[in-house]
Fold this sequence. Notes:
Blueprint: H1 2-5, H2 12-51, H3 83-119, H4 121-135, H5 139-148, H6 154-165, H7 167-181, H8 184-191, H9 196-232, H10 244-250, H11 252-256, H12 261-288, H13 290-297
Family: Belongs to the binding-protein-dependent transport system permease family.
Subcellular location: Cell membrane
Domain ABC transmembrane type-1: 91-281
Amino acid sequence: MAEATHRPKPRSGTVWRSRGADRRSTRALRVRTSAVLVTATLLAVLLVPPLVQLDQQAVDLAAKLRPPSWAHPFGTDDVGRDLLLRCVYGLRVSLLVGAAAALTATVIGTAVGACAGALGGWADRIVMRVVDTVSSVPHLLLGIFIVALFRPGVWPVIVSVALTHWLSTARIVRAEVLSLRARPYIDAAVSGGASRWRVAVRHLLPAVLPQAGLAAVLMVPHAMWHESALSFLGLGLPTHTASLGTLIQGAQGSLLAGQWWPTLFPGLFIIVPTLAVAGLAGAWRERLNPRRRSELML
């Protein structure tokens, strides 16, 4: 009985290793799932339009608002257009707009943040006060104001999203530059007579590029949501352009009438790819963060 009641307790190190293995397996599954979804999204965007010889604008009033079927897996919209094809075209437009806006915002944020961190002093204070002031205004409200200055189109949406999303990148790059300026090799380069421009190009810029790239990838889902919101409000892309936001905006009447599919599938085309991109970007961020990576190894 004594032997039965006094069982040896597992060592704490074994428990922690088991938990660490579970976390790593869960993380690996999440990354693989995100990679599969992102790959499927890119293949659909790149291959479906040239391979499927159908006009996504073709109207068939006799087939309007048909529910999902073998002929139309996502159903049809209020004028009989195939929703699957429309969603693929809409995803392509939203992805291109989001990627262009994210790249533009990353370039602006990297330049502003690098200059603020490298120059320091009054220049840094002025730049950060501007960043804080613009950040105090909600992104969507500021985006609506910018888009309202132009006619609906692709470029106004890209400009609107870029001008409202560069702030976080500027903060990240500035913090990284300030951290790098305290490194011994930067002091050695300055003591050796290297100019500020040479130090920035040779040492600071290569070091901040991974963080800037991560910020750009993380910004793509935000930019897609922003474009969809503007288009849904009727302020983004023209209504005849098949973006995911315009598809949802045009399906409001159908949803109120009980036809759910014109709203559901474009919404899923927004949610699933953006979550997949965010999952891959999160894995990238963990690889760039040594402390977080060491925690995952426990």
